[in-house]
Design goal:
flat, 3 domains, Thrombin, subunit H, 26-stranded parallel sheet
Amino acid sequence: MRRREAIAAALGFAALDPQTHAEPVEPEGSGSRDARNCAAATPLEIAAGIAPVDRSYPPGDVRRYGARGNGSADDSAAWRAAVSTGHRVLGGGPECIYAMHGSVPITRPTVIDMQHATMKPIGDTQVFVRNTPAPTARAIVLSGAMQGRRAIDVESVSGFLTGQWLRLSLNDFPQHDASSYPPSWTRIVAVSGRTVEFGTPLQIDYGKGGDPTAALAYDQRVLLPHFECRNGIFDGSACTYDRDTGQVIRISGCERVVVESCEFRDFAHGGELTCPVEIFTNIDATVRNCRFVGGVSKSNCCDIQGARFAHFLDNFIEGSHFGCNVTRVDYGLMANNSLHGQRALEAARGVWPPRSVRGLKAYGCTAIRILGNHASDYESPIKVEACFRYDVSHNVIFNGGLSPFSGQIALNVGSIHPGRNMRGGTVTGNHVEMCGGVGIGVTSDPPGGVVISGNVVRSTRSIGIYVIVPRATVVGNRVEDWALSGAQEPAIHFVADSTIADNRFANGVSDKVPCLGTVRQAAGSGILRDNVSETGNPYATGALALDR
């Protein structure tokens, strides 16, 4: 006798066989029809004034509120009803296809599990929409908006309260972009006189733009706690909305936004302004394990702006368009993504202006890390612009700028206005191969602010590594087969006061092109040592103001 049966017998009970007597357990939110459990309206439905249409479906299932899911009937009203209840919204399963002729406003905390259903926005339609809420309080900053400070003085503290979220806004160069400064999201911990104190020290200096820096505060009632969307397929083949970005998800004003395990496909509309995911002015934002395929657009397919933490992770992008843009965030991470543009095909077909311009781009960030991505067939597969700090490491870049040469840089670090906001960073361990222009380029940073090390750069029509930052450190790189256009360009081009050491060179096409060259003389002295040419290429071009 088994131990369980012996105990049951001793207590006077008959031992039950769990395989024959256990009640079936229905997984929570499975979407199965069970009239016994689903018939009654729930307190959330009653509070929202939503009457179920088909009570055989569980609360939150869009079919409970009248969705047909047949791919032709307009199901947008049912989706609005499901979201307004506050239940976890359920898509019903992969057999469901929802035609959406209208938008679904997001006005309360929302969790959507599409359950692998398909949604098709029809015509001039955006789907899930929440616009930027107005701040609770706003004031011009008088002083204190500097790195390391934990308090600012403002013109008036009216409306500023302990516990609110606070962000800073500074309009700056360039004119076409509202601001190249990150928001520095933080909590207010005290308000006294004209001083607003917050929990996290500022990571940058403000105050160099054309307009004054402003402080904006948000009550908890203004920002939603979360918006989450998972496990959906979004078909853009019938979507013609092109007045703005965010055809499927356009979400602002949340403490947390998560878009996970979704597929966005065939958002094209003749190559106009299509961008299925636009996430802006939120505290934390994550786009993870999503697929963006079949898109044709002069815009990007995913845009994350104005966040504290912005994570773009484990995604796949394929199409004739810009990839992902992370703009004006405090801390950004773009990691383990695979991106395939179509720049070479666009050039062959005469598409102008080009669409596959950038794969991953970071702009105006306090700190950005771009790690472990594979990006190919964009004009510049990876671009870092006007970011205060950056780490671009262990990426694999192929076929960058394989189109008529116009100064393309495959891994491109710089600023629209030379030196603006750049505070330095590292470019380490990347593999860059088959480039129509320059392999790695760093064109603006403070003196001594960049380290370029351990990279492999191979088969570039122009220079392998181009760095015009004073006192840069360029060590331990390997450059092969550069200057394939036939110009006498060096493998590494640098400012004369830099440290250039332990680099190796091999050119199987020409043994005449030089390994090293200076872009200009500099007041200071540099270090040049232990660089090796394996194919007998001349060590340098021109006179170097350095000792070998």
